[in-house]
Amino acid sequence: MAPRWAVGALLTMTFATGLVDAVSYLRLGHVFVANMTGNLVFLGFSLAGAYQLPVVAPIVAMTAFVLGAFFGGQLSRFLGGRPRFWLGCAFACQTAGLTLTALLLGTGVLRPDGRIVLVIIALLGGCCGLQNATVRLLAPRDLTTTVLTQTLTGLTAESALGAGIGKKPHRKVGSVLAMFAGAATGGLLLQITPAGVVGLAAVLVGSVACVFALGPEPDEPTV
User: Which Pfam families match (predicted)?
Assistant: First the structure.
């Protein structure tokens, strides 16, 4: 059974994902940094040329995401023998990337409406790629923290009215609510400061890093 603290930590990561995607989609030119399916679809739409959709930004986001995921895989390869240290290190690296982004936005070095917006997209995309790879390797089926398509499918298809084989539906519902709440909170806070939204995400992910680093050393995937 998954420890409650681990489930709570991953739901916190899901909330942080909603915050970050709110910044990227609403302020960085309608591009996702955590949802690569959306970017790939947007890129396909952009080939039509009539919808004035961005081309470079989705490519940058996907490239950064892949590099972040590769880095996450490397961390797992070399540190996976000590799960507590591996998870703490991975989420600490993500925290550092989010903190750097928030500082650059807050000091005006990077502007969400400037020409170097692609730098922000790359930083956030890399952070989300690292998160996605780490959580995937942690192996929770229903707490992916970034993409909820399979979560919604499992919640309905495996429910008592569906196949009747679903377990722990509250975790799936929690994931959906956490993502929704994060996106809504991010959209509201964006009216004040984008840097503050990314900074809040950094604080949350940093807290999760501490939880996993200081928690028990699992012999197998925590969730």
Answer: DUF1275 (PF06912)
